[in-house]
Amino acid sequence: MRDHARDLLAYAPSARTHAHAFFDEAAPALGAFCATPALQRLGGVSHRGLKRCARNVPEIMVPLCDGQADRTTALSPFSRLEHSEWVCAMATASCALHGLPYDDTFYAATAGLFHDVGHGAFSHAVEPLLHRHGVEDHENTGRRIIATDPHVQTAFSAHGVNTERLLGIVREEGDSGLRQKFVDTCTYVRHDATAAGYASMDGLCWSVLRSIRAMRDGMLELDETFLIEQFLDRRASMYADFYEHPYNRLCNLLLCEAADWLIRAGKLSIRAISYGRDEDVLGPMRLAAHNGAPAWFRSAHRLLLEDTAETGRWSARECSCESEANVLASRASDERPAFALPPIDLTGKSLPVRLPDGSVRSVRALPDSRPDHHRKWHVISYTGPV
Which of 109, 147, 164, 197 has the fewest C-beta atoms under 10 angstroms from its C-beta? Predict the structure, then answer.
């Protein structure tokens, strides 16, 4: 965390000194927090189950990526624990740039560590499955872990953490919550841009971080909005290219459906998803794939293990609306199932901004920047041998 903060503040010597002094004092507390079982579990949870980016693959759903592995690029994997440590470093860097006192920096850094503690196996990829089975989402799970987990509470008591104050930041309330929201987004963009070869994004993230004069009264105070507009546009573009590219949307959908099959067959507990690691899902999936699971399940399992040629066993059909997609999916057989894939909108995140003249506005990516396949319902069908 100290090294990440140092890299972020390479061009701001006074802020770098501020951050180093903070880590010298806070190291025992942050180390104790990272050692809790709740955070250690996140070391076995991948971010979104993401396998590859596919920057140069046409935005088509049929056939997905043409089944060609050389048309996609493997991204360096990272865990939820690594992401949480990077958010902690980004929050510390942001506080250092604004010269905030130790107490405010400490809570910002601690919130960065714990903001994703409720993520289950494969992170966001399985969130639809949690909703389907009536299980609370990762945000509510995380808040409950922060408030009630005995190991976490013991560490908090030892280092004087006010749980309610911390939960307010994690819920993104007030100015400290706004900082949490911003640094979380900035961390994703900086890491994923680097992993995918977008070297210029590192500089853009730094420029945006420096452009924020203060976070006050629920607003980012800026001299102008050009940089942050560019930042949010690039964020939306990267999400479309990486996390929600057709290849990864297919992987995440089939991960959910394969896990759902395991749950309905009594081979997996929904709790193993909510409170487990990736391997707690992959283990039963691997066992089922070698012991009589249907052909579509075995194909989904191979695809999740990055056998990209398996895309040739699946087809996708565009639908005009949700009802049409659900009807088509319901008509499929058990041997050749079909699953509805809803549209998504990654341009919704906005940041409140106040300019020097006192004017206030909400900055977000342009809604019309969504790729065409993000706007439509699709039905994904298994077409391989049974």
Answer: 164
If asked whether residues 63 and 180 sit together in one domain, one would say yes
Residue 384 φ then ψ, to 5°:
-80, 180
Q: Of 244, 265, 281, which one is at a domain's C-terminal end?
A: 244
Domain boundary among 219, 244, 269: 244
Structure letter (DSSP) for residue 372: G
Dihedral of the CA atoms 197, 74, 380, 341 (nearest 10)? -50
For residue 385, which of 299, 268, 289 has the smallest C-alpha distance? 299
DSSP string, 273-298: HHHS-HHHHHHHHHHHHTTT--HHHH
> Beta partners for 87?
none
User: Up-side HSE of residue 224: CA atoms within 13 Å toward CB?
Assistant: 4
Residue 350 belongs to what H/E stretch? strand 350-354
In the block, tokens 């740039």 appear at 97
Tens-digit pLDDT profile for residues 239-265? 776 767 777 788 889 999 999 999 999
pTM (2 decimals)? 0.90
Report the distance separating Cα 325 and Cα 318, nearest Å.
Answer: 8
- Containing domain of residue 325, as a range? 246-344+376-382
- Give the contacts of 286 (CB within 8 A, at least 6 positions apart): 301
